[in-house]
C-alpha cells in the first residue's frame, strides 16, 4: 500500500495527563495536563484537516485520553467526519461500565496495555494494582462488542511470560495482539530491554503465535514482516512452551503485510500540536496551529525520503526495504540519524 499521500494511522496525543506513572512511558505522562494543550476547537480543526486524508484511523492516545473532559465530544466529531475512531486509554479505574458504553457508541477499536502474564510483572512496570484494571478493561470492552487490541511491551520481565500471555489472550477472547519493542524515549530506558540476540527468538515466536487464530502486529519491529514472508518451522524455548500450552498450531502463517513505518503510513500529533513522524521518533516536523497536517505529511523532505526508502546501511540495500525499512525511531535513538540502518535487525 503506497503511503505517499495519506497515512493509515494518525495518532493524536490529546493530553499528557494520566493517572499512571509507568516506568517506560513514551509520553513522560504526568497527573495534570500541561499548558499549551490543544483546545476543543483547535482539536476539531485538527480533525477536519485529518479528514482531508480520507477514511483513515484516528487513534486518540495520551497520557490517558480519558483525562480530557471533552474526549467523547472529540471522538463524536471525528466519527461525524467519517474517520475511523480508535481509543487507547490507560488501564485504570476509569474503565468502568458507564465509560465503556460511551466508547462503544463512538469507537470501532480500543487498545489496552497488558505487559505481563503475572500481575506482579505488569504492576512492576505500570503501578501496584494496575493489572486488575487492564484485565477488567479488556473484559468490559469485549462484553460491549468493541474490537479490543491488547498491547504488550517486550521487556526483560515479560520475555519468559510471552507464551502464557498468548494463552491468556485466547482465554479472554482477544483477537488482535500488538507487540511493542522498546525504544529509549521518554521514561523508557535501555535497561528495560531484552538482549539484542533475543530479538530473533521473539520474532520467530510471534510468527508462530499468529498461527493460533490471533492477529499479531509489531511496533518498532518491522522485520517481523520479513519473518512472516520467509517463514520456516522454527523452534526455541518460547515456541516450545507455546505448543505445550496450546498444542500444535491450526493455521498457516498469515503473510498479509501493512508496510507502515515511522513517518510512512503513520503520523503523530503531540498534545500541543507538534507533529512528529511517530510517537517514538522525536523530530519535530511542524505544528498544526501553524500548518495543515496534510501539507506536512505530504511535503516534508524527511518523510519523502522515509516513504521512498532512501535509507542508509543495510536497510538501504536490503531487498525488504519497501515492506520493512527498519525502525526509523531506533535508528535515530542509536545513531542520531532517522535514515540510518536499524541496529536491532536480526538479519
TrEMBL record:
InterPro entries: 4Fe4S-binding_SPASM_dom (IPR023885), Aldolase_TIM (IPR013785), Elp3/MiaA/NifB-like_rSAM (IPR006638), PqqE-like (IPR017200), Radical_SAM_PqqE_MftC-like (IPR050377), rSAM (IPR007197), rSAM_sf (IPR058240). One of its GO terms (molecular function) is metal ion binding. Keywords: 4Fe-4S, Iron, Iron-sulfur, Metal-binding, S-adenosyl-L-methionine. PROSITE patterns: RADICAL_SAM. Its cofactor is [4Fe-4S] cluster. It comes from the Archaea. Transmembrane segments: none annotated. Residues 4-225 form the Radical SAM core domain. Gene3D superfamilies: Aldolase class I. SMART domains: Elp3 (SM00729). Signal peptide: none annotated. It holds the Pfam family Radical_SAM. NCBIfam families: rSAM_more_4Fe4S, TIGR04053 family radical SAM/SPASM domain-containing protein. PANTHER family: RADICAL SAM DOMAIN PROTEIN, TUNGSTEN-CONTAINING ALDEHYDE FERREDOXIN OXIDOREDUCTASE COFACTOR MODIFYING PROTEIN. This is TIGR04053 family radical SAM/SPASM domain-containing protein. It comes from Sulfurisphaera javensis.
Amino acid at each position: 500500500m503506497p503511503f505517499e499521500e495519506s497515512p493509515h494511522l494518525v495518532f493524536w496525543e490529546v493530553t499528557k495527563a494520566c493517572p499512571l506513572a509507568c516506568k517506560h512511558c513514551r509520553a513522560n505522562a504526568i497527573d495534570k495536563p500541561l499548558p499549551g494543550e490543544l483546545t476543543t476547537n483547535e482539536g476539531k480543526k485538527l480533525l477536519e484537516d485529518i479528514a482531508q486524508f480520507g477514511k483513515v484511523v484516528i487513534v486518540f492516545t495520551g497520557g490517558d485520553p480519558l483525562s480530557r473532559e471533552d474526549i467523547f465530544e472529540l471522538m463524536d466529531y471525528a466519527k461525524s467526519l467519517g474517520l475511523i475512531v480508535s481509543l487507547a486509554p490507560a488501564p485504570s479505574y476509569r474503565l468502568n461500565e458507564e465509560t465503556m458504553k460511551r466508547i462503544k457508541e463512538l469507537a470501532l477499536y480500543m487498545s489496552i496495555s497488558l505487559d505481563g502474564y503475572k500481575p506482579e510483572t505488569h504492576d512492576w512496570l505500570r503501578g501496584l494494582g494496575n493489572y486488575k484494571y487492564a484485565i477488567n478493561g479488556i473484559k468490559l470492552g469485549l462484553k460491549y462488542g468493541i474490537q479490543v487490541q491488547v498491547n504488550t511491551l517486550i521487556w526483560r520481565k515479560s520475555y519468559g511470560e510471552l507464551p502464557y500471555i498468548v494463552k491468556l489472550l485466547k482465554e479472554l477472547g482477544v483477537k488482535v495482539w500488538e507487540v511493542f519493542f522498546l525504544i529509549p524515549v521518554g521514561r523508557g530506558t535501555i535497561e528495560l530491554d531484552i538482549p539484542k540476540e533475543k530479538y530473533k527468538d521473539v520474532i520467530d515466536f510471534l510468527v508462530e503465535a499468529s498461527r493460533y487464530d490471533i492477529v499479531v502486529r509489531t511496533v518498532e519491529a518491522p522485520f517481523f514482516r520479513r519473518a512472516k514472508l520467509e517463514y520456516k518451522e522454527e523452534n526455541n524455548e518460547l515456541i516450545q512452551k507455546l505448543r505445550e500450552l496450546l498444542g500444535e498450531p491450526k493455521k498457516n502463517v498469515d503473510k498479509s503485510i501493512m508496510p507502515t513505518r515511522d513517518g510512512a503510513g503513520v503520523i503523530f500529533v503531540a498534545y500541543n500540536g507538534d507533529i512528529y513522524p511517530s510517537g517514538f521518533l522525536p523530530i519535530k516536523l511542524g505544528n498544526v496551529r501553524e500548518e495543515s497536517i496534510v501539507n506536512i505529511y505530504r511535503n516534508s523532505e524527511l518523510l519523502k525520503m522515509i516513504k521512498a526508502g532512501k535509507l542508509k546501511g543495510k536497510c538501504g540495500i536490503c531487498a525488504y526495504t519497501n515492506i520493512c525499512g527498519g525502525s526509523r525511531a531506533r535508528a535515530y535513538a542509536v545513531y542520531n540519524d532517522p535514515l540510518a540502518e536499524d541496529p536491532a535487525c536480526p538479519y
